[in-house]
Amino acid sequence: MNKLAILGATGSIGTSSLDVVRAHRDRLEVVAVSANRDWRKLAEICREFSPRVAILAQENIRDEVDTAQFPQETELQFGAEAITQIARASDIDTVIAAIVGAAGLASSYAAVDAGKRLAIANKETMVVAGPIIVERARHSGAELLPVDSEHSAIFQALQAGAEQEVSKIILTSSGGPFRTRTREEIAIATPEEAMKHPTWEMGPKITIDSATMMNKALEIIEARWLFDLQSDQIEVVIHQQSFMHSMVEFIDGSVVGQMSPPDMRLPIQYALSYPQRWKEVATRADFKKAFSLDFTPPDFERFPALQLGFDVAQRGGTTGAVLNACNEVAVSRFLQRELSFYDIARVCRELLDRHEFISKPTIEDLMVQDQWARKETTLWQP
Ligand SMILES: NC(=O)c1ccc[n+]([C@@H]2O[C@H](COP(=O)([O-])OP(=O)(O)OC[C@H]3O[C@@H](n4cnc5c(N)ncnc54)[C@H](OP(=O)(O)O)[C@@H]3O)[C@@H](O)[C@H]2O)c1
User: Fold this and answer.
1) Ligand 1 pocket residues where CB is under 6 Å
2) Domains plus CATH for the chain?
């Protein structure tokens, strides 16, 4: 039995993770679940899976929670610290990091420090503190398994050759809802338009990140640390069908990729089953029907956020923490109609240029930069 803590169980990745558990009850057991404040959904999950612990990050909602909705065998806890503690618990084998944003960093770090398998959906963990997480995992023996479909694809493709035989990786991107729009049209895009992703159904933050292509920028940074690559070994290609999830090019010119219909349950399952493969949980490709796959280069003019990913992957240090924090606040201000679509990349570029760069930061340094960037972005005016 692989005993799981699903952190962010009420979200899009959390829901898909629970689907994977439903398909493999003989192998997977949910021991702990967490949410931010959606206690009704968390209670529903607990009634189905009877975990030992359920945690709500927001302490101030204690009074509104109807504890009778939770089963007797589940202990309900509150606060971010309880989430960090459960990531270290001795009866947990694998932590699924499915919290959104830098709020997921502390529990991811705790899981790695305690030598667990960490199934990383929370890419912000790697963007903010990639080198620290990788270094800690090396010492503790923790396993870092990607859940992002692109990184899962690369992880799988890398198995086709030796480390020194890798020439580069190619991350695919659907191009988001504004793939075919002009710069002028994108400039006046509304939150409603940006929320309409053509291929994936995801939480609101990552959906906006996909529209700006900041999501790909974050994935470039995540890949740089997770796979120990140089930034010039990473390329991005637009592939609107989201069928080829990413590729590795080896030194002989062979390109190996992983294909499947877009369904997050597959990379989640692989992060849990690795090194084995289990029977399908996700939709299968149907090669009896005709279909085609397109690959086109990205447009850095229309999607300026993309360049930020390459710059941060190259510079490292505190830049990931600043980019991530600034983007989180800018996305929320865009959703509240306080910033325009292109303001998101603009404020990120400005704060990256202006922040006090540290090349080898500690976690504390990163937290200071995170707080600074959040404050500056909240006050920023176009
Ligand atoms: N969705 C995808 O297909 C996809 C694909 C690849 C990677 N990812 C990554 O996976 C992560 C989760 O994405 P998602 O789309 O599943 O997000 P989501 O649907 O918005 O779910 C986020 C989850 O995190 C919880 N949460 C939010 N803020 C929190 C906080 N401050 N402290 C503790 N928990 C908090 C939420 O609880 P409440 O329900 O109570 O708010 C919810 O359970 C992100 O890092 C994203 O980039 C997602």
Assistant:
1) 8-14, 35-38, 57, 98-100, 103, 121-124, 148, 200, 202-203, 206, 264
2) 2-146 (3.40.50.720), 151-315 (no CATH), 317-382 (1.10.1740.10)
